Amino acid sequence: MQVKVIKFGGSSLADAEQFKKVADIIHEDPARRYVVPSAPGKRFKEDTKVTDMLYACFEKAMNGEDFEADFDRIIERYEAIIAGLGLTLDMSKEYDRIKSAFAHRPGRDYAASRGEYLNGIILANYLGFDFIDAASVIFFQDNGSYDSERTNVTLSAILRNHKQAVIPGFYGSMPNGTIKTFSRGGSDITGSIVARAVNADIYENWTDVSGFLMADPRIVDNPKAIETITYRELRELSYMGATVLHEDAIFPVRFAGIPINIKNTNIPTDPGTMIVSSTSDFSSDNVITGIAGKKGLSVINIEKDMMNAEIGFGRKVLSVLEDSNIPFEHLPSGIDTMSVVVNTSCLESKRDKIIREICLKTTPDSVAIEDGLALIAIVGRGMIRSKGTAARVFKSLTNANINVRIVDQGSSELNIIIGVEEHDYENALCAIYNEFVK
Predict the structure, then answer these.
(1) pTM of the full predicted structure?
(2) What is d(CA 169, CA 188) in angstroms, rounded to the nearest whole number?
């Protein structure tokens, strides 16, 4: 029989009615045996996520302020879920334990993790599944990095003894037993870790959208959903700002070759998006898989005659950024020119120092920093088989009267990256989308 690991986001578990939808989805397929829940999300637009409520409580506790009323509101959220599900579950000891820990300032990670912990207990009780505290099976090293091998060995062994289980997302434990969380969105990572541990056939990630969209719906009207996307394509789009799935959640299942299916809790019959290691699926109508981009970038332009003949020139430039703890986003270059694209925010109070040190190390003919740049990545496994893809990109931008500042294509021909002025970003993204999607 197939084994599926299923993760539900905060919007899928925001209240009792959403819990009921989740239970129907799980019971509909006996292969759905291991469940990873997030903390309750927003029930409506002006609502507050439980994780944010916990952070607020923690801040008050740290400042020595009274947090009783704030904590009582968190209890009310969970008790409303329990009552709405008709459960007789008594969580008072759990609430008291957490409240007592808050009074002793247990740490920000502990505070944040209790949203998933409490939700996991309720969901396990409602489903009739075993509950496994993530702190007992997911481990971090002393330096705070995730301990993948210890986790995989321990979790695999324990889950073999549990036919069905709920494992809360977002957190694990340090060697000294204290709670450590992944970054925000870390329940996606937990789901991926569990999927690897049980060698799942599929990792289903349930959220409030019907899969991955080809472009940002805030910019493009009704973008098409992506039926199938490879891990490499998703990595490219995620890096450029597409955020349906937490970026780090790709790696454990990619390592194991497990496909991910992004599904909609509110419309469970929608097929969603399949994320796979590789696929031969290709259509001439779908040359590109998706488009994504980011604003708020600056470009450091360096010019020097015979730059290409100077050994170590690029290393010297990048060492200046490294010394200032600045990562680079992109590195287009020519024979006598080199451009380094960085986040504008990283340059704050460091501009003069960077220019001065580049001049000292490389003696360039000129160095200048220009702000107001946006990058757009056009990603698609179909581009390698389709002639004229780049020409179509540039034609669409020319017709939209948009000037292209930077152009680069990856060696794998999986993506084309262009740089445009920030004020042209939205129009450029729409123009490219309309060129390729009919």
Answers:
(1) 0.83
(2) 7
